[in-house]
């Protein structure tokens, strides 16, 4: 599974690739389990190997707080990149809607490895920047579409 | 002289009769005077209240869509919007940016 489809490892040499994987721990999440909670210290970065991860934010609906889907990620995608960005707190809640396997990369181990291997650090940082940029573009588009609907309702 | 006295007497008699008649007439007017209307009670002025005395607590609204169905609609809406946004980012055009959605949450 650790091939070019893993967005975080894009552009890495085979050696860099293997060194990064060696830092991680494979973990299987049962269906319905929570990977991390909103606001919790972000101490791991996760690469999804199998299954799905739902990223949600809480929203009060009819007097109850519900987890509202923000994004769903699948195999090859990375979640929890807040671990690499201060203040290192998860900004979403992540849960597995079905049995899911992830590679958990500890933040501290990544930082140590990046200090020892600046080339890997540069490549991974660039990949994370691309992930963040993609998400930003995605959500600004979604936000503009919602704004458009709101204005149509207001002008109706 | 006698004639003069007689005229005076007749005049006095006439004056007396006239006075009596006038008195009788005015007496009847006074008797027929309508009594003053009784004091009509003024309609009560409702004092102004800042808060209503009888607060009616509305019953919880009966929702047409069950919460589970609503959450599924939100899920579906997010996925459709994400797909629409990804299409726009792949080929950025105004038409794709403002394309219509078939999301049940909006319909």
What does the model show?
The complex is a heterodimer of chains A (about 160) and B (about 110). Chain A has a single domain, classed as Jelly Rolls (Sandwich). With about 160 residues, chain A is of the alpha+beta class. The mean pLDDT of chain A is about 90. Chain A is built from 3 helices and 8 strands. In chain A, strand 4 (about 55-60) and strand 5 form a beta hairpin. In chain A, strands 1-8-3-6 form a 4-stranded antiparallel β-sheet. Chain A has a 4-stranded antiparallel β-sheet with strand order 2-7-4-5, with no helix packed on it. Chain B is mostly helical and about 110 residues long. Chain B has helices at about 1-30, 65-90, 95. Chain B folds into 2 domains: about 1-35; about 65-105. The N and C termini of chain B lie far apart (about 125 Å). The radius of gyration of chain B is 49 Å and the shape is rod-shaped. Chain B is built from 3 helices and no strands. The model of chain B has no long low-confidence stretch (mean pLDDT about 75). The chains are: A alpha+beta (about 160), B mainly alpha (about 110). Chains A and B meet through strand 5 and helix 3 of A and helix 2 of B.
């Amino acid at each position: 599974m650790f091939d070019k489809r893993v967005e975080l490892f894009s552009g890495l040499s085979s050696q860099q690739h293997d060194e990064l994987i060696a830092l991680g721990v494979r973990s299987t999440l049962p269906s319905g389990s929570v990977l991390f909670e909103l606001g919790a210290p972000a101490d791991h970065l996760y690469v999804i190997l199998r299954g799905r991860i739902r990223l949600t934010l809480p929203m009060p609906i009819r007097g109850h707080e519900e987890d509202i889907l923000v994004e769903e990620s699948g195999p090859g995608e990375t979640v929890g990149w807040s671990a690499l960005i201060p203040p290192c707190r998860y900004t979403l809640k992540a849960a597995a809607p079905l049995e899911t396997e992830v590679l958990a990369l500890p933040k501290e181990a990544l930082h140590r490895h990046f200090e020892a291997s600046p080339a890997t650090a540069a490549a991974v940082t660039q990949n994370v920047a691309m992930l963040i940029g993609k998400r930003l573009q995605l959500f600004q588009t979604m936000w503009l579409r919602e704004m458009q609907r709101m204005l149509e309702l207001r002008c109706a | 002289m006698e004639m003069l006295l007689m005229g005076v007497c007749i005049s006095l008699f006439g004056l007396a009769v006239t006075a009596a008649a006038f008195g009788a007439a005015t007496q009847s007017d006074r008797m027929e005077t309508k009594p003053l209307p009784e004091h009509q009670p003024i309609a009560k002025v409702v004092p102004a209240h800042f808060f209503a005395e009888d607060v009616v607590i509305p019953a919880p609204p009966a929702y047409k869509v069950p919460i589970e169905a609503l959450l599924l609609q939100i899920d579906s809406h997010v996925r459709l919007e994400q797909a629409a946004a990804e299409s726009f980012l792949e080929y950025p055009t105004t038409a794709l940016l403002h394309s219509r959605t078939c999301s049940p949450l909006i319909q």
